[in-house]
Design brief:
It is a single chain. The chain is of the alpha+beta class. The chain has four domains: about 1-60, Beta-grasp domain (Ubiquitin-like (UB roll)), CATH 3.10.20; about 65-235, 2-Layer Sandwich (Threonyl-tRNA Synthetase, Chain A, domain 2), CATH 3.30.980; about 250-290 and about 330-525, 2-Layer Sandwich (BirA Bifunctional Protein, domain 2), CATH 3.30.930; about 540-630, Anticodon-binding domain (Rossmann fold). The chain has 19 helices and 34 strands. An eight-stranded mixed β-sheet has the order 16-21-22-29-26-25-23-24. It is globular and about 90 Å long. The mean pLDDT is about 95.
Length: about 650
């Protein structure tokens, strides 16, 4: 029997396992993870029964890490079953940066449990169990797991179509799984159990509450160490932690999950962002709207939201024998304003923007600080365009989009163009025009992008922009969507130059996405160290002792009169304690004043995260601060030799 492996032909015995082939032909099996035959991934233990062309999957292949992580999830489940024999085993997929496995256990796993699980995994790894694929009739597999008391596995197998079930066995542990997997547990190394959390069986909150254990694994020890360091840095930047420490926002059980209370400092930053947003939109030719938080349910029937989006909407309310609905979107309101009178072609393009608060029923299991909430304010806009204006309008949106993102320090993006799905509304001509307009705008601006085929929404194609923060994490914020659906549903039109009625094209766009989510991303991006133009307190004055309080008060008053956001730390505490407090508050500039500074009418500057800078006059400091505010500079540093 002949096989071709990575372009080279070999004569092999029928029925030989591929791992044995590797050993027989001078390959090191540990260098490989799986094989690909006819586009399908198979285990290294796969038995060769006919001539085939085979591609070796090594550790550099992007699919290799998923196989490693899936295999490690099974190793973790094996360890859990040995330590906690009564648990019900759920599912254990590979995910981005790691893996998890769900278990039904009445009591949550403790940190001590997780440490024991990782310890047991290491023991099982050393035993180097073969990981073997077994295929059996579906009914036999159901019987096997019933005998083991694993009812959740029985449920999964019963739902499976086809007569044959594939299982994987290592030692005494057996699991229902499609694979592929590594050939031995000994191939698994460089793993770490991270934490556990609650989850629902099959993601349905009406089902059993499971205990989900997360872990991570890499091929190389250095990769694991780098990732664990990344997690530590991300933990320090967690917006929920910093939001509490810096008194920026609050999510209260008394108010309700997913509903944000903006505290004074957070509300101040939000207002500065809003003012900047409004100013830039007026410059770009937008007009601002404000719309209600509720509307009669008929509006949502016309828009199609009740048909397509009902599960994400809060239940309706009844007043005066009419049903009203909390708004999940702003767009139908903008269309209602458009329809308030007949429009002329001379008015186009019409650019309307709104900081509109919307409400969506997100399941409690997915709520996450500011990043996933139930009430949020979209930086929403809708552009009504004539067909021939579409390209230019998208170019303009992109210009404004990247200008705003760059102002906040985001200059690294992943951009996707999502094209027509199988089910869509509108004519093919309009879809082609819209997709070409999106492509034209991206290419004119020299923006690299990937095509996401078939992932447009049913009403039109779109551009999605994912920003990358200082840790390299991607966040979905900006979206630009062309819509043929709502203009048709609401039957909106304009009078063209020939006096005929025409239907405009509608563009939906959000640049930040939502203030809540964007603010959460900013907290983590800046690690709480907001740029001077956003910082609620820009400067704190710290007298060396009570003896210099009067001079400290004088410095405070001078800066306050010049419009600097300043506070005076007049507490009777040691200097080091007050400096440390200011550092923890992430105040950009700390001004230390003592005898030398009082005599010289100066201040000694300490820069947040940098260290001691040296002595300077109040006028110098004021000019530096104003210049940084004017430029909306991200960093605090000053171009002068830093003294540490």
């Amino acid at each position: 029997m002949k096989i071709i492996v990575n372009g080279k032909e070999y004569e092999v015995e029928k029925g030989i396992s591929f791992i044995q082939f590797l050993k027989n032909n001078g390959f090191n099996p540990k260098d490989y993870v799986a094989i690909e035959i006819n586009g399908e991934l198979k285990d290294l233990r796969y038995k060769l029964e006919e001539d085939a062309e085979i591609k070796l999957i090594d550790k550099k292949d992007k699919r290799a890490l998923e196989i490693l992580r899936h295999s490690t999830a099974h190793l973790m489940a094996q360890a859990v079953m040995e330590l906690f024999p009564d648990v019900q085993v759920g599912v254990g997929p590979a995910i981005e940066n790691g893996f998890y496995y769900d278990f039904y256990k009445e009591e949550p796993f403790t940190p001590e449990d997780l440490a024991e699980i990782e310890k047991r995994m290491k023991k099982l790894r050393k035993k180097n169990f073969p990981i073997e694929r077994i295929e059996m009739p579906k009914e036999e597999a159901i019987k096997l797991f019933k005998e083991k008391g694993q009812n959740l596995k029985v449920e999964l197998i019963e739902e499976k179509s086809g007569d044959i079930a594939s299982l994987y066995k290592q030692g005494d542990f057996i699991d229902f799984c499609r694979g592929p997997h590594l050939p031995y547990t000994g191939y698994i190394n460089n793993f770490k159990i991270l934490y556990s959390s609650a989850a629902y069986w099959k993601g349905d909150e009406n089902n059993l509450q499971m205990q989900r254990i997360y872990g991570t694994v890499f091929f190389e020890k250095e990769e694991l160490e780098d990732y664990l360091h990344f997690l530590e840095e991300a933990k320090k930047r967690d917006h929920r932690k910093l939001g509490k420490e810096l008194e920026l926002f609050l999510i209260s059980d008394q108010i309700g999950p997913g509903l944000v209370l903006w505290l004074p400092k957070g509300a101040f930053i939000r207002r500065k962002i809003e003012d900047f947003w409004v100013e830039e939109h007026y410059k770009a030719g937008y007009e601002l709207l404000n719309t209600p938080h509720i509307a009669k349910i008929d509006l949502w029937e016309t828009s199609g939201h009740l048909s397509f989006y009902k599960e994400n909407m809060f239940p309706p309310m009844e007043f005066d024998n009419m049903e009203y609905q909390l708004k999940p979107m702003n767009c139908p309101f903008h269309i209602a304003i458009y329809k308030s009178r007949m429009r002329s072609y001379r008015e186009f393009p019409i650019r309307w923007a709104e900081l509109g608060t919307v409400y969506r029923y997100e399941r409690s299991g997915v709520l996450h600080g500011l990043l996933r909430v139930r009430g949020f304010t979209q930086d929403d806009a809708h552009i009504f365009s004539r067909p021939e204006q579409l390209q230019e309008e998208i170019v303009n949106i992109l210009d404004l989009n990247f200008k705003i993102l760059r102002t906040f320090g985001f200059d690294n993006y992943d951009v996707y163009l999502s094209t027509r799905p199988d089910k869509y509304v509108g004519s093919l001509e309009n879809w082609e025009r819209a997709e070409n307009a999106l492509k034209y705008a991206l290419e004119k601006q020299g923006i690299s992008y990937e095509i996401d085929p078939g992932e447009g929404v049913f009403y039109g194609p779109k551009i999605d922009i994912k920003i990358k923060d200082t840790l390299g994490r991607s966040w979905q914020c900006s979206t630009i969507q062309v819509d043929f659906n709502l203009p048709e549903r609401f039957n909106i039109s304009y009078i063209d130059k020939n006096g005929e009625k025409k239907q405009p094209i509608m563009i939906h766009r959000a640049l930040m996405g939502s203030f809540e989510r964007f603010f959460g991303v900013l907290i983590e991006h800046y690690a709480g160290k907001f740029p001077l133009w956003l910082a609620p307190v820009q400067v704190t004055v710290v007298p060396v002792s009570e003896k210099y309080l009067d001079y400290g008060q004088n410095v405070f008053e001078q800066l306050k009169e010049r419009g600097i956001r300043v506070k005076l730390d007049d507490r009777n505490e040691k200097l080091g304690y007050k400096i440390r407090s200011a550092e923890l508050e992430k105040i950009p500039y700390i001004l230390i004043v003592g005898e030398k500074e009082a005599n010289n009418k100066s201040v000694s500057l300490r820069i947040q995260g940098v260290g001691d800078f040296g002595e300077m006059s109040i006028n110098e400091l004021h000019d530096i601060i104003q210049e940084k505010i004017k430029l909306k500079a991200i960093d605090y540093n000053i171009k002068k030799e830093v003294i540490d």
